Amino acid sequence: MPQNAADNRPHSAPDTLANRIATELEQEIIAGGWRVGQPLGNEEQLVERFGVSRWVLREALAITERDGLTQMRRGRGGGLVVAEPAESVVATTLRNYLLFSGIEANGLLSVRQLIDGLACRLGSANLDPQALAAARAFHADMAALDDLGGLEVSTRLYRQILKLSGNRLVQIFGSVLSQLTYGHGICLGSRPLRGLTQSPNARRMGEMRRTQFTRVVAADLYGAIKASGEACEVILDLFAESPGGGRHFDLGSSIGDTRAIAELILNTYPSDRTFRRVDILALQIQLDIIRLGLAPGHPLAPEKTLTERYGVGRNVLREAIRVLQRDNIVTAAEGRQGGLWAAEPRPDNVIRSSLVLFRFMQLGRDEIDPVFREVFGLAAALAAEGGDPGPALAVLERIAAGERGLTGALLASLGRAGGNPILALFSAILAALGAADDRAPTPSASALGEALRAGDSGLARRLALTWGR
Asked: pLDDT tens digits for 331-340?
């Protein structure tokens, strides 16, 4: 997406009254122990409590519902209650941000191979009797999947592999990568959508995931990782079927029906969440902004035109716009000079939304540490290969001098250095979780700095994988 902004675009104002109300509700829910189902008041009571209009309140509640914090119960005795946040909410937020990030095929697959391999290792090692019984039951039912398209078979099997890992962070990151892979693979295809899902390469990927799943259940780590790598090679072949040759993801002009694309992306990773028309519309608008290459500050069509274009009413459109404003995908201004403009998603908003869910999940070190090590290792390798390790080297010098609490800052700077948007986001989230910062300073700080300067990616990765041990 073009980065040059129009001179007349309005400044984004994330600190709106609605955002402040949403933040206050979030803090109240977390401080209260996140008691699912706890009533927070009806609309009239909340309007009076915050001293705002119904419009502002509804904008704030659209934010908290989007983040999976609250839900509005209708009918007699209804009102706003604390929700149990779905993991699919944060996966969707991460995916939507990454849609705008200029992902390249090799960049996606390098991170995907990392998470897939970790899921195989954890699943092969951690199969308790209950998980094993569930996996065998699923395996017995797999014959029913034969009538589905190859990509859908692959998706269902991959979801089971992520579950077997027993690691919720791996499941979320894997979900994001699965949705990006499937969504971009569909968008790249020059053939009809159904044709791409039934192509020989799609069927091959389903077969590779089937093999990977059976190898994980059999605790055959080598066979599972081998099948996972072959599945990634098939993904590259799928991308190569596109007009652009698969090197760079592009939602090009060949895609006419963005609603069909949005529905496919939303349904890629099965979850308990039911997607509403508002969710589909919000993603449609995002896809159109990317497809048309609209720079930040480019004006969008008037409300009347948008309702006609997407075949929705004003209320649905306005709710979708509030969702998009939350992630800074669009920005709006009221009044005579008002209107709607394309904007640029903010990584800090994405990280904040993610941390809301992670606080509720209470992730333990046993879940964070394996992901931290693998992401740290890849980030160090890519930074050494040809990235810009300058900021990371500055952090390493402070660590070598004995300063503590900087491992998170080091991980975030390494993630940015490699030029991979997915790795940069995952690194920033892990750094924000804070679990890395209590690691003791290590003698390998100087050695890692030397490896980065020398461009030795293998050594940099090995040193990062053993960091703090």
From this structure: 876 555 557 8
